[in-house]
Amino acid sequence: MTYQEQIAGADKLIKSFNGTWDGIDAEAVARMQLQNRFRTGLDIARYTAAIMRRDMAAYDADPAAYTQSLGCWHGFIGQQKLISIKKHFGSTKGKYLYLSGWMVAALRSEFGPLPDQSMHEKTSVPALIEELYTFLKQADARELSLMFRDLDKAREAGNEVEVQRLVNGIDNFETHVVPIIADIDAGFGNAEATYLLAKKMIEAGACALQIENQVSDEKQCGHQDGKVTVPHEDFLQKVRACRYAFLELGVEDGIIVTRTDSLGAGLTKQIAYSREPGDLGDQYNAFLDCEEVTDLASLRGDVVIERDGKLMRPKRLASNLYQFREGTGADRCVLDCITSLQNGADLLWIETEKPHIEQIASMVDRIREAVPNAKLVYNNSPSFNWTLNFRQQVYDRWAAEGKDVSGYDRARLMSADYDETELAREADERIRTFQKDASARAGIFHHLITLPTYHTAALSTDNLAKEYFGEAAMLGYVKGVQRQEIRQGIACVKHQNMSGSDIGDDHKEYFAGEAALKAGGAHNTMNQFAA
């Protein structure tokens, strides 16, 4: 409904109570309704799932229409990100949120900082989803509150042109609520545990769940060693559990992102069950590193399998884990991805050890032979040294082309000594265009950075601490923070407004009329920032 239709509907309802509701103002009701567009997390999940589906179709038609997100570990961080996006770009189109299990473990666990090994409370994940959307909804309420105040001023001034402009802006208001891709790790247990957690995440508002093919109780960060994968059928049980959760809750177009860690995972906890040669279990087992058994007396509690008519013993570590043959990671990734897409996944995530477009594309090309519209979510990870990686890529290309690289030490390319060189400039340009180029060449629909706001919080705090506790003292805060907030138009420079003080004043006026004791009067120090 339009703003005027919303008011009319509220007015009709109020009048139906024969005067007993006359203390309720219809326009105030309409305003509060507009400020709370999403009543439940499921409303958000359904709304944002539709956005992602449209964006996926747009990418299929044009790879330049890729999407992006930044990982956020607190509702305020997510809120400020979306406020900033609207300020700078005028629209949130194609911009999502990412919820990182790593950041939940490191920053939101009641145990304190933990490694990314699924040791944090599983309930902290849906709790953060709910928190993020609470802050985004508050951003809606705040922006609309400012528009309502401007509308009242325009009416008082008799400026009908401004009144119509503001009403049109209210009718076409773009919400800060955007899709969230939420990390469910390896499911935090068996398929039933995955289903139960998936339901909580969806109920909190998640429209996209990212699940990985590691063993739950051996789960490692994607950029650390010691990763252990599971057979495909075990993983697909959890994929199906996520789909059942979406369907049960009425989010029929919910998105499942299946992540494969096979490129860096050299171990498996179990041998896959196989019914016949060439089936999925047999294909998984074919990657095992085995040795032929020629002496039965050498077997001591070993598991043996048949391969090409021979009795083979998979190599097993003291940890009771089996290892894969070296050099099979890419082949296993391709099989993982094709299998996932053929069994209900919507998007893929291939965890790589470096940001190299042709490495990613070499796998995606093979996947697309089986599933032509295969699309990736890609982690533009802070675990990569982007500067060093791209400088080395340029160095290697130059060397292969016969270009003189004698002025560069490949092992020292991270050094600031090279910052103003031709090689560094070319590397930086390749970093700048990485997302566009990778989306065009390697099928990447969504680019995210998992932990950016973890690093920005640390960096900005370090800079402030160095100045404030040093010679600059209070000038360190004023010059480095507040002056920049004012000049760059950062919304939270008016922190009372950002926390909801003005919205509270609106409510006081709705509830108490002229008797309202409001905080936003002439003596509120936030007025110092009016200019």
UniProtKB/TrEMBL annotation:
Active-site residues, record numbering mapped to chain: C221
Top-level taxon: Bacteria
Cofactor annotation: Mg(2+)
Gene Ontology BP terms: carboxylic acid metabolic process
Keyword Transferase among UniProt keywords: no
Gene3D superfamilies attached to this UniProt entry: Phosphoenolpyruvate-binding domains
Protein name stated in the entry: Isocitrate lyase
Record's catalysed reaction(s): D-threo-isocitrate = glyoxylate + succinate
GO molecular function per UniProt: isocitrate lyase activity; metal ion binding
UniProt: Mg(2+) binding residues: D183
One Pfam family cited in the UniProt record for this chain: ICL
Keywords linked to the UniProt accession: Lyase, Magnesium, Metal-binding
PANTHER family linked to this entry: BIFUNCTIONAL GLYOXYLATE CYCLE PROTEIN (PTHR21631:SF3), ISOCITRATE LYASE/MALATE SYNTHASE (PTHR21631)
Cofactor comment: Can also use Mn(2+) ion.
